[in-house]
Design goal:
By secondary structure, the protein is an all-alpha fold. The protein has one domain. It is 73% helix and 0% strand. Helix 3 runs antiparallel to helix 14 (315-345), helix 7 packs antiparallel against helix 15 and helix 7 runs parallel beside helix 16 (379-399). The longest helix is centred in the last third of the chain and has 31 residues, at 315-345. It is globular. The termini are close together. 45% of the residues are buried.
Length: 408
C-alpha cells in the first residue's frame, strides 16, 4: 500500500499539468489507501495529532453547521463532504508516505523532473510564442503545458515545496549530493520562469518566498550571509534587467500598480467587498461553500458589483463568506500552527535555519493573506496548495527528527 501511495503522490505534479481529473483521482486513492492502512494496522493515532485534529473539526463544522444552513445547500454539501479528502491526504503525506527514505527520493525525482519539463516548455514558449506540450499560444502570459496562464504559480508552489524537502533530506544524510545539486539547478530555473510568466500574484509571492529563504540563509551565519546578500543582489538585478528589456513584463507590473492604487475600484476590490458583505450578512455560518458565485447575480442586479466570479479571489475572504466565523476561526488556528512550527525551527540554528526559511517561503505562496488567489476549495488550486503544504510540512518534520518508522 505504501508503494502504491508513493507512486500516486509522485504523479500528482504531472497530473496537475496534463490531467486535472487524474490529479484529484490520485488524491482520493492516497486517501483511501491511508484509511485502509490505518484500519488494517489499527493505527488511528494520527487523528489525535493537533494539526490534523483541527482540520477534522473544521470538516465536521462544514457538514454539521455550515452546509445545512447554506442558501444552496446541495452545492455546499458537495464541497464540504469532499473536503475530507484533503484532510486525509495531508495526514497521509506527512505521517505515512514521506517518512520513508526510498519514497522521498522517488517523489523528489518525479517532482524535479516534472518541474524541469514544465519550466523548459514555458521557456520555449517565451521565445517561440507557443507551447510544445500544450500547444497553447502565448497571449500576454505564459501557460507552459497548461491550458490557462497558471504556470508561474504552479512552478512556485511545487518548486519551493520540493526544494525544501530536498534540502531537509540532504541535511539528514539521506540523499546523494549529486541529486541535491540537480535541485540547485532546477529551482533557480523554475523561479526564472515564474518571473517570465507575467503572473503578478505568482511573481510577488515568489519574491516574498525568496525573502523568507534569504533570511534563513543569512541566519545560518558565516559565509552564508555573504551568499544571501549576493543572491539578493542577483535576484533584484535580474528583475530590473527583465523590466528593462521586456515591455510585456513591464506592462504587467504597471497594471499591478494600477490595481493596487485603485483597489476598491478594481474587480478584485469589488469581489473582496462582496465577500465581506456576504460574511457580515451571515457572520456565523457564511453563505455556504461554493455559494459565492450562485448568490452573486442578485447583488450584481442591485448594482453592487460589475461582474460575477465563482469566488472572491482571496483565500481568507472566501473562508469568511463561505463558512463564516465557525469555519474561519479554526482554519486560522491551523494556519497559525503550521506557520509557528516554521518560526520555532529557526531556534535549531545552523543549516536548519535555511530549512525554516524555505518552509515559510512555501507557506507564503499558499497562505499569504493579501494575495489575489484562486479558490481555496475548487479542485486544481486546492490540490496544488495542499500538495505544496503537505510536502513542506513533511520536510520540516524530517528536519525535526519526527519520523515514524512504521511506513508499511
Amino acid at each position: 500500500m505504501h508503494l502504491a501511495a508513493t507512486f500516486f503522490l509522485s504523479t500528482i505534479p504531472a497530473f496537475l499539468l496534463f490531467a486535472r481529473g487524474a490529479a484529484d483521482g490520485a488524491v482520493v486513492l492516497i486517501t483511501l489507501l491511508f484509511l485502509v492502512r490505518s484500519a488494517v494496522h489499527r493505527d488511528w493515532s494520527w487523528v489525535r495529532q493537533s494539526d490534523i485534529a483541527i482540520l477534522l473539526v473544521i470538516w465536521l463544522i462544514m457538514n454539521l453547521l455550515v452546509s445545512p444552513f447554506a442558501e444552496f445547500s446541495g452545492k455546499s454539501f458537495g464541497r464540504s463532504a469532499s473536503w475530507l479528502r484533503f484532510v486525509v491526504f495531508y495526514a497521509a503525506v506527512t505521517r505515512w508516505i514521506l517518512v520513508d527514505q526510498k519514497a522521498v527520493r522517488w517523489v523528489l525525482i518525479a517532482s524535479l523532473t516534472t518541474i524541469m519539463v514544465a519550466a523548459a516548455d514555458a521557456f520555449y514558449q517565451f521565445f517561440a510564442g507557443y507551447s510544445l506540450l500544450g500547444g497553447q499560444p502565448m497571449t500576454g502570459r505564459l501557460t507552459g503545458p497548461l491550458d490557462r496562464p497558471n504556470i508561474g504559480i504552479y512552478l512556485a508552489k511545487t518548486g519551493f515545496a520540493t526544494f525544501t524537502l530536498a534540502l531537509a533530506l540532504y541535511l539528514s544524510d539521506m540523499m546523494k549530493q549529486n541529486a541535491f545539486r540537480i535541485g540547485l539547478v532546477v529551482s533557480p530555473f523554475a523561479l526564472m520562469i515564474v518571473f517570465l510568466s507575467g503572473e503578478r500574484t505568482a511573481s510577488v509571492l515568489s519574491l516574498l518566498a525568496i525573502g523568507c529563504s534569504l533570511v534563513g540563509l543569512f541566519l545560518v551565519g558565516g559565509k552564508s550571509r555573504l551568499a544571501a546578500a549576493g543572491i539578493a543582489v542577483f535576484v533584484f538585478g535580474g528583475i530590473g534587467a527583465l523590466l528593462t528589456i521586456s515591455d510585456r513584463i513591464l506592462a504587467r507590473v504597471m497594471a499591478l500598480g494600477d490595481v493596487v492604487s485603485d483597489y476598491s475600484g478594481s474587480i478584485y476590490g469589488e469581489l473582496t467587498s462582496l465577500g465581506w458583505r456576504l460574511f457580515t450578512e451571515n457572520p456565523i455560518v457564511g453563505t455556504g461553500m461554493g455559494n459565492f458565485g450562485l448568490v452573486c447575480p442578485e447583488y450584481q442586479a442591485r448594482g453592487l458589483i460589475s461582474e460575477c466570479h465563482p469566488h472572491p479571489h482571496n483565500f481568507y475572504v472566501e473562508w469568511l463568506s463561505d463558512t463564516g466565523l465557525l469555519g474561519t476561526l479554526p482554519w486560522l488556528v491551523f494556519v497559525g500552527m503550521i506557520v509557528w512550527a516554521g518560526l520555532r525551527h529557526f531556534r535549531n540554528g545552523h543549516s536548519q535555519s535555511l530549512v525554516a526559511g524555505l518552509y515559510l517561503g512555501t507557506m507564503v505562496l499558499s497562505l499569504f493573506p493579501l494575495a489575489a488567489t484562486q479558490s481555496a476549495f475548487s479542485n486544481w488550486p486546492a490540490i496544488m496548495a495542499w500538495n505544496s503544504i503537505a510536502v513542506a510540512v513533511a520536510a520540516l518534520r524530517l528536519s525535526q527528527g519526527k519520523v515514524d518508522k512504521s511506513a508499511a
